């Protein structure tokens, strides 16, 4: 596959060539088949053994370098899929269109969509290791999982005994200079409710309210940065509006992924035509309050409210029906008051979030309401407790709620022999030790440890900013340092 011109001159060339191939092949969660097939053919052409397990994961195997056959095997691990987000007004079909990377001031960036550096750079590093000539290495397995971003289904479905290596390098963290030796576990909370629909009264005008311009971000890594949640802001506005106005709620929507802080949300509602001037004044005042409130974290926040074209309630009963007042009050009360954001900071790791939740996706269409929260914690029991609290909160508003998609965290092992070797290599290569950290995001290491408890694991990666949001970028120099470290670690492991 031809390398895009914008990445062709970047170093290390092999890593960026692989990343260019990943940018060219669409790979949203649950649609990794084309990329997997491309990689199978790539491996076959190089004599690298490949297999696909029952969960859809791709495993590539390469024998040890001569003389290193008795060294314990090493697994390089990443995931094939990416989070797909685009700015409002950007026309991009993530199932068909390639990602369009640009180089800006030492970073590779996708300006209007997510870039897929999470975890495309990790995958590219692993593939480059498989074909690097002259690299001394132990027996290598490259595990490339599927559907990590929307359910961790690949890691969840990996059968015990599939992997034979004893040490695993996860290449899915996003801050250079740190070795990660633990991560948060998580669980989703799903909420639903069938609403009673009613005809709109005569003399009412339909409006569309939109919240936009928010930065969004990764619901684990960025949850503590004070960024606005578009769904929460919309619910707050509608809840406040429902007191002075006779508001009939027709439709709502916001967010596209449970693990991304929602950047945009909207609602369609009807109020009396006589209240038009009052509504416009209220929206203007609310917008100014938001802009002051988020002055330091959201400089582009926007709140707009416009009449739905040619749509008044008169004669529109079949096309537009609102939910009953009791349902409106329950939904808005629940969304407005539900916990969102940081619940607890870590006692053991300064500045690291221990427990949080993100209201990531919400919809109300034709009376059917759905919402999804992403709960995370460094302690599985705390994630479970917060999820139970959210469920009880939903039930108090007469909504149905349940837990889904739970996965375990990865408990730190400070006495890891792999960690000790990696620290020794890092210090030799860069003149200082790496810091040790845990990450408030879901890596697949917890699930891999459940199916392969013998594994000694560590994670590292380059500097990636804005993962899970348009404008995602990765620092070029840190990718080169990751490549330098990966090669040195593999050579150190090969020599025992």
From TrEMBL:
SUPFAM superfamilies in alphabetical order: Bacterial exopeptidase dimerisation domain, Zn-dependent exopeptidases
Keyword Transport: no
Cofactor: Zn(2+); Co(2+)
CDD domains linked to this entry: M20_pepD
Catalyzed reaction equations: Hydrolysis of dipeptides, preferentially hydrophobic dipeptides including prolyl amino acids
Gene3D superfamilies for this protein: Zn peptidases
EC number(s) from the headed UniProt entry: 3.4.13.18
Protein name from the UniProt record: Cytosol non-specific dipeptidase
Lineage: Bacteria, Pseudomonadati, Pseudomonadota, Betaproteobacteria, Nitrosomonadales
């Amino acid at each position: 596959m031809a390398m895009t011109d914008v990445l062709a001159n970047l170093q290390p060339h092999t890593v960026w060539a692989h990343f260019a191939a990943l940018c060219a092949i669409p790979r949203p969660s649950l649609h990794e088949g084309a990329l997997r097939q491309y990689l199978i053919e790539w491996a076959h052409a190089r004599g690298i053994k490949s297999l696909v397990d029952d969960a859809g994961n791709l495993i590539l195997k390469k024998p040890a370098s001569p003389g290193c056959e008795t060294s314990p095997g090493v697994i390089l691990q990443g995931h094939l899929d990416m989070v797909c987000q685009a700015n409002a007004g950007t026309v991009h079909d993530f199932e068909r269109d390639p990602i369009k990377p640009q180089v800006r001031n030492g970073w590779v960036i996708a300006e209007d969509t997510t870039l897929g550096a999470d975890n495309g750079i990790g995958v590219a590093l692993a593939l480059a290791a498989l074909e690097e000539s002259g690299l001394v290495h132990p027996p290598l397995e490259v595990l490339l999982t599927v559907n990590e971003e929307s359910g961790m289904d690949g890691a969840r479905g990996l059968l015990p005994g599939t992997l034979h290596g004893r040490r695993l390098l996860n290449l899915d963290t996003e801050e250079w200079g740190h070795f990660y030796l633990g991560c948060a576990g998580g669980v989703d909370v799903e909420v639903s409710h069938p609403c009673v629909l009613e005809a709109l009264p005569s003399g009412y005008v339909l409006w569309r309210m939109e919240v936009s311009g928010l930065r969004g971000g990764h619901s684990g890594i960025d949850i503590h940065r004070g960024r606005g949640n578009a769904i929460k802001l919309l619910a707050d506005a509608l809840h406040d509006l429902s007191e002075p106005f006779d508001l009939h709620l027709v439709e709502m929507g916001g967010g596209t992924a449970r693990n991304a802080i929602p950047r945009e949300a909207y609602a369609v509602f009807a109020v009396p035509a006589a209240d038009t001037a009052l509504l416009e004044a209220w929206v203007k005042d609310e917008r100014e309050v938001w802009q002051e409130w988020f002055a330091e974290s959201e400089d582009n926040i926007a709140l707009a409210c416009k009449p739905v074209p040619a749509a008044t309630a008169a004669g529109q009963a079949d096309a537009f029906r609102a939910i009953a007042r009791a349902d409106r009050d329950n939904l808005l009360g629940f969304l407005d008051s539900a916990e969102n954001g940081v619940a607890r900071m870590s006692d053991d790791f300064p500045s690291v979030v221990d427990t949080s939740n993100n209201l990531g996706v919400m919809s109300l269409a034709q009376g059917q309401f759905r919402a999804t929260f992403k709960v995370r914690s460094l302690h599985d029991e705390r994630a479970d407790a917060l999820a139970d609290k959210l469920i009880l909160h939903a039930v108090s508003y007469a909504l149905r709620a349940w837990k889904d998609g739970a996965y375990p965290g990865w408990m730190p092992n400070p006495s890891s022999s792999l960690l000790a070797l990696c620290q020794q290599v890092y210090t030799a290569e860069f003149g200082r030790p790496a810091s040790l950290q845990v990450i408030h995001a879901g890596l697949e290491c917890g699930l891999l440890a459940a199916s392969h408890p013998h594994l000694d694991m560590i994670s590292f990666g380059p500097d990636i900013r804005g993962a899970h949001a348009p404008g995602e970028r990765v620092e070029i120099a840190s990718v080169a340092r990751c490549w330098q470290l990966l090669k040195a670690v593999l050579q150190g492991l090969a020599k025992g």
